[in-house]
Design a protein that fits this description.
Elements lengths: L3 E5 L3 H12 L3 E6 L3 H11 L2 E2 L3 H6 L3 E4 L4 H7 L15 E4 L5 H13 L3 E7 L3 H6 L2 E7 L1 H6 L1 H7 E8 L3 H29 L4 H9 L6 H12 L8 H18 L4 H15 L20
Parallel strand pairs: 1-2, 1-4, 2-3, 4-5, 5-6, 7-8
Antiparallel strand pairs: 6-7
Organism: Persicirhabdus sediminis
Protein name: NAD(P)-dependent oxidoreductase
InterPro entries: 6-PGluconate_DH-like_C_sf, 6PGD_dom2, 6PGDH_NADP-bd, HIBADH-like_NADP-bd, HIBADH-related, NAD(P)-bd_dom_sf
């Protein structure tokens, strides 16, 4: 029998994961979001209960997927008392999908264990379309027996799984994934911006990039958006700044200098300061093309 699924965080990623699981025959039984209308709309769409509080989620689900914004939001939903997922959590498994600091993933897992619950971290290296289609790339940390127990569910969400080790390990890997992705995005924006200033044909330049050492996955996903100034959000500049910050903090704790990552974070913080933090990360090109910023 398939597990009943609870969703905490019904934004673009959480909602599309819920839709895909519903399509695959899972009972998405309960949905919670800090924005009531968001939860109401998704619950109505999927025939689920909209939870007014977090204990209602744990009372009505066997597995709870959490997709929240940052460390503070994660600590809030797992606080020791009051409106918390830890209330009545005995026997529940939490699969925490947000990009957070490793320390918070470990902190939450320890609190859940004391409450009698299991925890996995499932870091996602994909975007909205992949969430909807069940083709996420997931990096999963946690107890290997808990991972094995829930592998069928995780396979349903993903095109590939990578077990990374204990809780906290997937967060470290994800931080480095996004650190490099963000640097690649900022570097591509600079290259295209300079090419434009030099009067080059940018379509030609992108084709040359694709056949040389300048190629990257970001070239495939972001170059057209940078040229067309189409920054519909799939992964926001604000999230890019947050995730680069996580990586930079890990580097500092390890005693490693990461000047390129620090410069990249500063670029995304400029976008935030300009009121453009909710645009896609490709909007970093607005800072690198003449007469755009």
């Amino acid at each position: 029998m398939k597990a009943r699924i609870g969703i905490v965080g019904a934004g673009r990623m959480g909602a599309n994961m819920a839709r895909h699981l519903n399509d695959e025959g899972y009972e998405v039984s309960v949905i919670y979001d800090v924005y009531q209308k968001v939860a109401d709309d998704l619950a109505a769409e999927l025939g689920a209960q909209r939870a007014a509080d977090l204990p209602t989620v744990t009372a009505n689900a066997d597995v709870v997927l959490t997709v929240v914004t940052d460390d503070a939001a994660m600590r809030d939903i797992f606080k020791p008392a009051g409106d918390t997922l830890l209330c009545g959590a005995q026997g529940v498994t939490f699969i925490n999908c947000a990009t957070l600091s490793p320390e918070v993933h470990i902190e939450v897992a320890n609190a859940a264990e004391l409450a009698g619950a299991n925890t996995l971290e499932a870091a996602m290296a994909s975007s909205i379309d992949q969430a909807r289609n069940g083709t996420l790339y997931l990096m999963v940390g946690g107890d290997d027996a808990v991972f094995a127990e829930h592998k069928q569910l995780l396979d349903t969400l993903s095109v590939a799984l990578r077990y990374t080790g204990p809780i906290g390990s997937a967060a470290k890997v994800k931080a480095l994934v996004n650190m490099v992705m963000n640097m690649n995005t900022a570097a591509l924006a600079e290259g295209l911006g300079l090419g434009d200033a030099l009067g080059l044909d940018l379509e030609m330049l992108c084709e040359v990039f694709s056949q040389t050492g300048a190629n990257s996955r970001v070239l495939e996903t972001d170059a057209e958006d940078m040229l067309g100034r189409d920054h519909e959000c799939y992964f926001s500049a604000a999230h890019a700044a947050k995730d680069s910050g996580i990586a930079n903090s890990l580097a500092k704790s390890a005693g490693v200098a990461v000047p390129l990552s620090e410069a990249t974070k500063a670029q995304y913080e400029k976008l935030i300061a300009l009121g453009r933090g909710e645009l896609d990360k490709s909007a970093v090109s607005e800072l690198t093309f003449k007469n755009r910023a």
